[in-house]
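Students often ask why we bother encoding 3D structure as a string. The short answer is that it lets us treat folding as translation between two languages. Here is a chain of 1149 residues written in the first language.
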Amino acid sequence: MTSTGQDSTTTRQRRSRHNPHSPPLDSSISPGVKKGAGLRSSPKLAEVKKKGRMKKLSQAAEQDLIVGFQGLDLNLEAKTLPGTGLVFDEQLNEFHCLWDDSFPEGPERLHAIKEQLIREGLLDRCVSFQARFAEKEELMLVHSLEYIDLMETTQYMNEGELRVLADTYDSVYLHPNSYTCACLASGSVLRLVDAVLGAEIQNGMAIIRPPGHHAQHSLMDGYCMFNHVAVAARYAQVKHRIQRVLIVDWDVHHGQGTQFTFDQDPSVLYFSIHRYEQGRFWPHLKASNWSTIGFGQGQGYTINVPWNQVGMRDADYIAAFLRVLLPVALEFQPQLVLVAAGFDALQGDPKGEMATTPAGFAQLTHLLMGLAGGRLILSLEGGYNLRSLAEGVSASLHTLLGDPCPMLESPGAPCASALSSLSCTLEALEPFWETLMRSDDTLEGDHVEGYNVEEEEEGPWPPQALPILMWPVLQARTGLVYDQRMMDHYNLWDNHHPEIPQRVSRIMCRLEELGLAGRCLTLPARPATDAELLTCHSAEYVGRLRATEKMKTRELHRESANFESIYICPSTFACAQLATGASCCLVEAVLAGEVLNGIAVVRPPGHHAEQDAACGFCFFNSVAVAARHAQAISGHALRILIVDWDVHHGNGTQHIFEEDPSVLYISLHRYDHGTFFPMGDEGASNQVGRSAGTGFTVNVAWNGPRMGDSEYLAAWHRLVLPIAYEFNPELVLVSAGFDAAWRDPLGGCQLSPEGYAHLTHLLMGLAGGRIILILEGGYNLTSISESMAACTRTLLGDPPPLLTLSRPPLSGALASITETIQVHRRYWRSLRATKVEDKEGPFSSMSVTKEAIQPANPGSTERLTMLEGSNLDAGMGKATPAPSVQESIPAQTNSETVVVQLTKDQSPEAATGGATLDQTTSEAATLDQTTSEAASGGATLDQTTSEKPVGGDVLIQTPQASCANSQTPPTSPVQGATPQISHSPLVGNLRTLELGNKAQEAPESQIAEEERLLGEIAGDQNIDDSMQAFGDTDQAMFYAVTPLLWCPHLVAVCPIPEGGLDVSQPCQECGALQENWACLSCYEVYCSRYINAHMLQHHESSGHPLVLSYVDLSTWCYGCQAYVHHQALLDVKNIAHQNKFGEDMPHSH
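And here it is in the second language, the structure alphabet:
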């Protein structure tokens, strides 16, 4: 990960050779001197005028710029798509739980949603699509044919048979119509994929059931049969040749099925934000933690944000999107965004116990609409409070339709627990994403004077009633104010001055060419009244400017020289008055609900104008007067956010509001250590306001040129938006100067029209969408025209254009952002994300280093163990938090788990009497805490899929560790394999179950033998006692996994070679000495997935299914995707044990 420093002479020279029209990269173009009381002309400005006539572009350069912008394809009339697609089919309600009427996943969920959508008139506003059935070939993009066939047979089972099969999975039920409805649900999402990628619609939502994100390759799980979103992603890639898909999972439960499908695939970026509570919440997987980031080529493409407490609020979710998801997604550049849209994190949901609101989900939806050119599809997952579910779906659908996001009731800032999770997630991902890199001045610790984390209010917060959302009914969306009379202000002495009348006329011509002006509501401009001007300017100054209307040319020249970088003509006062009044007109229209947002194409600009002085081409501060006018007509101190993205610091605006906490002023500008206009230290990061306004002035001071899309978006994600959401403005005003645009003769920066569109879109989530852009600077006619057109298109509701970030943020820019964050952390809680210890409870953490990320192990994936006589207990279902493993296992389930207890002073050998676990019951071995190398048959809790652990997995508890603690992952031979399950043994077991009444019971002798062995491994304790001691934090707990007792691939095991086995033999391909496996068909030795994955490659080329680990002597079957123990394997294991330990394996016969 590298970046070129801003001050690189080599880079500067190289750019000049390749592009002679590049903007100047020194500060000599700064048209200013220090602002202040001295009213004198700027020698630097005069010098620039004489040398280059303000850097006027040559005709060739102008033509080059126009050609460059032609690639933007801003022909908006041709590109606008009809709207939002919706799939809602009543057939999806034709299944329910036959044996438990209270099961939370039922038809009433869709009934409630439909009633809400009808009540709000949303059904008629959407483009309706008929659901279709997913074909087997489509489902096989993710699921095995054997599994699909098994699910298909459920159509013909009776209730008893369905219940027996359902009980083999975790938290599911089956109905004769389950298969049909699941196929219809998957097909519904595929129909929307076709419509979105076929340009029939812009975006869409599939209101479907059953949910899908827990379903795995060959396994039902957590109410889910087929993984709709995963199938849709693969379908988009195969049919529509989409190369990059982003999947966002905001269901309160981790979508482990989706993660396992893509965890080695760099073409799919998976982001999940879910309740975790250090592994105590379903599905109890370490793979759900921040430390799991994918495997092999997929490293960095799995992102988990785990919530470790209940009561998480909108601010926490928004922070996760801003700090993690959006920066990574912009670098990833998805071509399609799919959302596993569960609404069980809403207030009132009995499963999630979170405190988000429907307005919060509207915000999340809006943020995602800026990606992939707006190609976004939401697929319903969970949500079990009927009112919350219905209102959450409605809010997201409103947003997809282009309605403004409602204001958040009390957004606040992310809590300390959320900041901790985000810090660890960012640390894990930083080596893989350039956009996440931090400056050298990375924030260390949270030591802010007068601030104590413990003193902050922390959740869980008491439940509150859901707010009633009001959706505005607008006759027009975007207002446009412009008056040709503003062109009457011009320079009498310099025809090449950059602030020319054509600036506004060229913008209007471009808006008309693109059909944008016709889509706006044109509002008449009027001059500002004296009362309006006097809210920000002194009466003496207003009178002084008015007097210029009657001055002669010589007097005008003399008066101009009294101000800094100013020219005055007889029409100047009227034009400035009109520009300010036009801005006030737009404010009136927005606050009255006549329009939602708007643009003011006005001149002269205003943000440099002081209370009693003109400055930098500016006379009246239009933005400041508009803000005061908004507060006046609203009747209270309206909270107003002013964002100033003009390349020059808005010194006038800052001074007018520097003592006012009702106006938050954020400026991003070139500062160049005080040498860039308006010069001096007014725009420095340490200027934060005064008195009651302290903290409400925020300056991001760039100290060099070439700032572009990457830098501005980094500032938006890390600083501007976190503060803005915490401030929660009621109106947003933008000092929209476009002199930071590419090829501007004064700015020397590189913002693109697409970049401006994205900045605008991100601000539109604030203040209920009430945002006004008021033109400030910008002196390249083509740049400002295209940039304002891009912003207008976005305000009109069109998705921002695709944005390609050519490079990561410059290191100097990151230093500037970090500097401002350091200054403002004391004022804004949202900026206090630092390194915080992540107490992972039952799980230890991985070491996050740039050299080697060691993710969790997927080797022990989805073993389906038939739990004889066990029944599905909906009350113990997936959404019920499990404080301990004991509570999560139904009493009637025969325990097949092993708990190994080690005190801090006891060695693994002592705990087991120096012996490994009897292989007839479990593949578990001991764990050396010194090296943290797991030897539990290669299995960890990572891929356990059950809250009542199917297959007998039990949580491991180790001493708490911070996110920097080291852990070496367990051994596994599986490199790149999607977690799967074989259904040959499943079908075989189902046959032995004699489907019809009940499962066969295991022989009592077998159960007694298992219980004896469990007690032995637990240190000669009663097994119940060992479970009781599970939560003792003074001891380290481990678990064992029950392997398959038979698999159909055992016939592939060949006799042991005459020379025996050598467990120290290196990999035959790369010579690695660690984590090697022996093929039980040919006895060749190769390394595991964590080395170079040569055993997996051997399996793929030879088809040999069974391999033996030389680390822990476990046996893995590639065909079954499971660990296997059988009598046929004992001889080879015993030989290996003799070679490894010099003695026979205990209990080997």
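Translate back mentally: The longest strand covers residues 268-275. Keep this in mind for the problem set.
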